Amino acid sequence: MTFVMNDVKISPDTKSLLFEKHVEYISNYGKDKNEYEYHMTEFLRMSGIYWGVTALDLMGELDKIDRDTVVEFVKKCQCPVSGGIAACDGHDPHILYTLSAVQILCIYDCLSEIDTDAVVRYVGNLQQPDGSFFGDKWGEVDTRFSFCAVATLAILNKLDTIDLPKAVDFVMSCSNPDGGFGSKPNAESHAGLVYCCVGFLSITNQLHRLECDKLAWWLCERQLPSGGLNGRPEKLPDVCYSWWVLASLTIMGRLHWISAEKLQQFILSCQDNETGGFSDRTGNLPDIFHTLFGLGALSLLGSDQLKKVNPTFCMPEYVIQKFNFQKRLKITMFLGT
Ligand SMILES: [Zn+2]
């Protein structure tokens, strides 16, 4: 039997973080409104802004984006009927963009700029009798939405407004014999969904439900000879999985189970030497999504050029500390269980 492994060759040329280039790349994001790309990415504009704001904050360069413009944009995207927030003014609200919006306003410390009671109502209305969450009114169910729901409510200090035990039971029903998690019961394990479920269990203070050694071993098997991490067996490595795998390992206290040095080399090789920004893998075009997750992973690996990132919320740790979410949550959960 031959063993087939998909991997990439990385160029060892780039050994350092192209800090200034990334700042320039991110602060120019969305500035040229005539660009084809700007219109093509309208459906995820809110998340794009969250990725950019978080990345710049981690680099200590948050003032490179105009705060008032961002806050005005977020306010316009809240639906006055459902309370949910859309990717862009005029689009339908979705729980993914609702979380991004709440994260942005939390970083800027101005959550009162939106109707947070309406956001809480919107999230609560998306919970289903089995504990799962719809992403929006169209009714798709996915463990990603369970994560978005509890992360949004945790930031707003309103976790007690949903049926938490049922929400936890649903996420646990999506775990697999390999220790990982899928998008719904019996769905294949995937590193991105592992992150959502581990993050969910961390927020709801239920990490003891995990088989940490088994899951961490599955996550470590995602590292390929190039140093990069893939999301599932036999897939190519991708910078965004650096974040999802590393954040999950960090939450479980097992970051040291993978080769940090090789992963760092892989991530640095995905920087664009000319324009700045990170791509999914060496030689591809950069985008804002992979730029945040590349920087986030480097922060988890201990980069001294970046602020510390919180592995659960993917926001700067100082923001999480300021609002003390996790401490408050533990109190809520002990009372509730
Ligand atoms: Zn990716």
Explained architecture:
This protein is mostly helical and 337 residues long. The chain has a single domain, classed as Glycosyltransferase (Alpha/alpha barrel). 47% of the residues lie in helices and 1% in strands. It has a two-stranded antiparallel sheet with strand order 1-2. A hairpin with a 4-residue loop joins strand 1 (309-310) and strand 2 (315-316). Its EC number is 2.5.1.60. Belongs to the protein prenyltransferase subunit beta family.
Topology:
Layout lengths: L18 H9 L8 H5 L4 H14 L8 H10 L18 H13 L8 H10 L17 H13 L8 H9 L18 H13 L8 H9 L18 H13 L8 H10 L18 H13 L8 E2 L4 E2 H7 L1 H12 L1
Antiparallel strand pairs: 1-2
Helix pairs in contact: 3-5, 3-13, 5-7, 7-9, 9-11, 11-13
The protein binds zinc ion (ZN).
Zinc ion binds next to loops.
Short description:
The protein is mostly helical and 337 residues long. It is built from 15 helices and 2 strands.
- Assign the structural class, choosing from mainly alpha, mainly beta, alpha/beta, alpha+beta, or little secondary structure: mainly alpha
The geometry reads as globular
CA-based gyration radius: 19 Å
Question: What is the strand content?
Answer: under 5%
Number of helices: 15
**Would you report the number of β strands?**
2
SSE pattern, N- to C-terminal: HHHHHHHHHHHHHEEHH
For this structure, the CATH topology is Glycosyltransferase
**Mean of pLDDT:** 92
Bound molecules: zinc ion
